[in-house]
Design a protein that fits this description.
This protein is an alpha+beta fold. The chain has a domain of about 200 residues: 2-Layer Sandwich (Alpha-Beta Plaits). Helices cover about 45% and strands about 15% of the residues. Strands 1, 2, 3, 4 and 5 form a five-stranded antiparallel β-sheet that branches. Helix 4 packs parallel to helix 5. The termini are far apart. The relative contact order is 0.10. About 10% of the residues have low confidence.
Length: about 300
């Protein structure tokens, strides 16, 4: 004890030195742990970078920035999608009312008026129709009440059938024999089978595909005009299939470029070599055509 008293400043300094050494050791220990964790994280990051570099495609390097290229391509794709929407404009329902839910009498009047207008348009375009043709709405055209929940889908289909029919009237086909649609109402169970197709809506993540089937009679030039009408429409029509057969009637016309199907179905007569007039290259036959069409309706 005497020695400590005589050297108390030395002892105090020694204690402080030992404390500082302990603190320094603890700090070094913590730093070592942090460095070790940082080194492990660095190795992990480097390993991920190596994996990405060897992938196909890789993020790139100092000369090629594939990430930027991918972002640019994504932006271009979004711009294309935005522009493509101009070719998938929705078809307005009939009646196209924004005053709340459809009312029964409102739809009944619109249905009767639209069928009358289509029959009048067919007459003006010299397109023959079956007697009292209902444009696939035979089951609904004379009703004053409709199945619950059916007004909205029926109004949508009425607008689409009108748009489709106008394409055939514009092409001036010889006759429109049938228009077939999906059953969307319990009332459709009482309609003739010739008004419907046994398919269902085909939704996916991007759009809903609504099918229709139309049977008509025409010559090759009118068939071409129908296809052009669908192609030029802003409403997203896709022609899924077409079936062409000889119809009951025939007519003599001169054609220089008959479709291959007609060449197979109707043998060409011998070319006339008489004097005067045009040579008959093909005796074209009236055709009965069934065409399958889908309307693409984007969800967004």
């Amino acid at each position: 004890m005497g020695w400590i008293k005589r050297n108390k400043f030395f002892v105090i300094g020694l204690i402080l030195a030992l404390g500082m050494l302990g603190a320094a050791g603890f700090y070094d220990y913590q730093s070592w742990n942090r460095n070790d964790a940082a080194f492990a994280h660095l190795n992990e990051t480097y390993g991920k970078l190596q994996d990405l570099t060897h992938k196909q495609p890789s993020p790139g390097n100092d000369k090629v920035d594939n990430i930027k290229a991918a972002r640019d391509q994504e932006r271009q794709l979004r711009d294309w999608v935005r522009q493509a929407k101009n070719y998938f404009l929705p078809i307005a329902r009939i009646p196209d009312s924004n005053s709340g839910p459809l009312r029964t009498e409102e739809f009944a009047q619109a249905l009767s008026r639209t069928i009358d207008e289509l029959q009048h348009d067919a007459t003006n375009a010299n397109v023959a129709l079956p007697p009292d043709f209902g444009f696939s709405f035979t089951a609904e055209r004379n009703r004053v009440t409709f199945a619950p929940g059916s007004l909205e889908p029926l109004a949508v289909q009425l607008g689409e059938v009108k748009t489709i029919s106008e394409i055939f009237f514009g092409a001036r086909v010889n006759s429109l024999d049938s228009v077939q649609r999906l059953r969307v109402s319990d009332d459709d169970t009482s309609g003739p089978q010739s008004d419907y197709i046994d398919e269902t809506l085909q939704p996916n993540n991007q759009a809903v595909l609504t099918p229709y089937q139309i049977t008509f009679r025409a010559f090759s030039s009118e068939i071409a005009q129908v296809l052009v009408g669908f192609e030029n429409s802003p409403h997203g029509f896709i022609v899924k299939g077409i079936n062409v057969q000889p119809a009951a009637g025939t007519a003599d016309t001169t054609s220089m470029a008959p479709p291959p199907s007609e060449m197979a179905a109707t043998p060409a007569p011998a070319v006339s070599t008489g004097k005067g007039g045009l040579q008959t290259v093909l005796k074209e036959q009236l055709l009965r055509v069934t065409i399958e069409v889908e309307i693409v309706k984007p969800k967004n």
